[in-house]
Automatic annotation (TrEMBL):
It comes from the Eukaryota. This is YCII-related domain-containing protein. It holds the Pfam family YCII. InterPro entries: Dimeric_a/b-barrel (IPR011008), Sec-metab_biosynth-assoc (IPR051807), YCII (IPR005545). SUPFAM superfamilies: Dimeric alpha+beta barrel. Gene3D superfamilies: Dimeric alpha+beta barrel. Residues 10-93 form the YCII-related domain.
Length: 118
């Protein structure tokens, strides 16, 4: 990787395997803790869970995977980032090969995450 900031943005969707919710929730604190420096460094622009449907008020969402926008110099660098994520140890593991990585462009930023209001 070069010493300058990556100029390419990648939209990433990684599906969860069936029954991954408990492992996802257990890994979430470490996953979010690791994201803060990546967001501050400008490597992760946004991220979150994908849902099977809009939950009714008061119902827990049915998470089906994750979506994120990552700044990196190459698709290989994006895959390495995914492999190092705490979710890899259970939620993504065997599905990294099935993820969709699409080069994209956006100018949005995850300001709410940096506020700590989550």
């Amino acid at each position: 990787m070069s010493s300058s900031a990556p100029t390419k943005e990648w939209l990433v969707h990684v599906p969860d395997f069936p029954g991954a919710l408990d492992k996802r929730l257990a890994a979430r604190p470490t996953h979010l803790g690791n994201l803060k420096p990546a967001i501050e460094a400008g490597k992760v622009v946004f991220g979150g869970a994908t849902l099977s449907k809009q939950p009714a008020e008061g119902d827990a969402p049915d998470m089906t995977g994750s979506v994120m926008l990552i700044k990196a110099d190459s698709e290989e660098e994006v895959r390495k980032t995914l492999e190092e994520d705490p979710y890899t140890k259970g939620v993504y593991s065997k599905l990294i090969g099935k993820c969709n990585i699409i080069q994209a462009y956006t100018s949005a930023m995850a300001i709410w995450f940096l506020s700590g209001d989550f």
